[in-house]
Structure formats: C-alpha cells, structure tokens
Amino acid sequence: MTPLPDFMLEPLVRAGLLEDFGCGGDLTTDALAAPGQILHTALVARQDGVVAGLSLARLAFTLIDPAVRFTVERPDGSTVAPGTCIARVVGAAPAILGGERVALNFLSHLSGIATATAGIVRAVAGTRARVCCTRKTLPGMRAIQKYAVRAGGGSNHRFRLDDAILIKDNHIALAGGSVRAALDAARARAGHLVSIELEVDTLDQLAEALQAGGADVFLLDNMTPAQLRDAVAMVAGRALTEASGGITPDTAAAIAATGVDILSLGWLTHTVRALDIGLDYDSRGM
C-alpha cells in the first residue's frame, strides 16, 4: 500500500491531539513520569484483522515529540492474528502515553474498515465483482476511510459530488419523473471525461434507460439476485453494473454470482466495528 501523504493526515491528527490534551496537557503522565524516562512499547493486535492507519498512529506520537522512533512491523494491508506486533514505538513517556489514545483511535477504526472490507472481498472471490465503498463516511474523514477500504482489498466509489454524475431517484423526480429527460440533461452538461451513472429500481426503468441511450454505469438498487441476473443480461456489457442495497457478508456471494461488476456497501464506512489493538510494554526493549 502507498500511504497517504503526511500533509493530508496532520490536520486530522492535530485535531485529535488538541481535543485530548485540552488546556492542561496530560496530567497523569506529567505527575508520574520521571524526567527523561524512555518507554519501549508495541502496538499489538488483540484479534484477527487487516491493518490500516499506521501513518496516523505514527503522527500521533511524532507530532508530540519528533524524536519518537516508530518502526512498522506489519504495514497497512497486512493480515494479523492476536498477539501480532504491528509496530514498535520508542520514546519519551509524555509522547508515548500522550499520543496513545489518538493513535489507537485512528488505527483501530481504520483497521476495522479494512477488516470488514477484506471479509467481503473473500466472500466474492472467484467472481468478477469488485467491492466498493460509498460517500457514507464521517465528515472530514472520507479520505482516510476510503484509504482503509483500499487496504482491505476494496475499491472506492466517487469521493465528491464533482467526481461524476450519479442520477438517483430524487434527481429523476427533479427531471419530471422521466429517466430519458434526466439522462439527456446529464449528457448535455457532462464534460467528455465525466462518467454518468444512473440508479434504477426496476427492470422497466432499466429498459427505459437503455432505450434512451444508456449510461456508463447502472446502479441496480435493492434488486433480488434473479432481478440482477436479468439486469446484467439486459445491459449485455454495454455499461458497468453496480449492485447496491442490503448487501451483507451472508448475501454478497450470491449477489456477486449474478455477474454484476461492482458491489457497493455503505456500511463498510458508516457502521464500523473497530479492530481491537493495544499499546503494550515491549519486552524486547526492557
């Protein structure tokens, strides 16, 4: 994995540290740490998963004290088991203990996304389908949450409203309820590099869209596997097909087997179970 550059991550980590340190700093560590005391610690997985977010974890320590040594043992995208050392962190006690919670919050959250994504990717292995996230991300955290999806082997949908045209049910209503009118208006406005995706809820809508000249991508919303197979046959390779709505680890394989190109899942980023990771004293450095 190519990590995101620090200049993109620093504002998020600084905000986390400012929130945690408040106006008075780390009262506990300031009271207990001896002057110049150095800690040898390790970020350790407590459960099976996939790692994501190490750059943010590193910054949580080095923005407090640039002298902290952060050595990655299992880079982003790696699979880990309980007890696996993900990274070793050595430095002054105020930096290690002051940055601990912010580092773990980012690392556990993003590793949870990567782990969930990897589970769906495994479920659809052997099919043509790619696993994709959506824009259902926490405000301000879209770039890192989508990065975590990539770390888990998934792909990203558009990042922003200006990435592509995506015509959904409310847009069709805005165009007077006509799929053709919505597509015509989109084509008139789109630049030559802008893709057009159309959401359809029924096979009749899909037929209308195909008769109106089609789109680059069809988002097949909340369709059954039987309907998805029919939709893929109707499109016949003239556009990408994307299944969305109600996709779970239990249903992903059957949906992918219909021949759709993409499975998009909003819950990969909006309903996240953090991966359990801890910061432990490192016996190697003791």
TrEMBL record:
Record pathway: Cofactor biosynthesis; NAD(+) biosynthesis; nicotinate D-ribonucleotide from quinolinate: step 1/1
Reaction it catalyzes: nicotinate beta-D-ribonucleotide + CO2 + diphosphate = quinolinate + 5-phospho-alpha-D-ribose 1-diphosphate + 2 H(+)
Domain Quinolinate phosphoribosyl transferase N-terminal: 26-111
Any one Pfam family match given in the protein's UniProt record, by short name: QRPTase_N
UniProt entry keywords in alphabetical sequence: Glycosyltransferase, Pyridine nucleotide biosynthesis, Transferase
Enzyme Commission number, as recorded: 2.4.2.19
InterPro entries: Aldolase_TIM, NadC, NadC/ModD, Nicotinate_pribotase-like_C, Quinolinate_PRibosylTase_N_sf, Quinolinate_PRibosylTrfase_C, Quinolinate_PRibosylTrfase_N
GO cellular component, one term: cytoplasm
GO terms classed as biological process: NAD+ biosynthetic process; quinolinate catabolic process
Broad enzyme group: transferase
Superkingdom of the organism of origin: Bacteria
SUPFAM superfamilies tied to this protein: Nicotinate/Quinolinate PRTase C-terminal domain-like, Nicotinate/Quinolinate PRTase N-terminal domain-like
Residue ranges constituting the Quinolinate phosphoribosyl transferase C-terminal domain according to the UniProt record: 113-280
One example GO MF annotation: nicotinate-nucleotide diphosphorylase (carboxylating) activity
PANTHER family named in the record: NICOTINATE-NUCLEOTIDE PYROPHOSPHORYLASE [CARBOXYLATING]
The protein's role, per its UniProt record: Involved in the catabolism of quinolinic acid (QA).
Quaternary context: Hexamer formed by 3 homodimers.
NCBIfam families: nadC
Record family assignment: Belongs to the NadC/ModD family.
Protein name in UniProt: Probable nicotinate-nucleotide pyrophosphorylase [carboxylating]
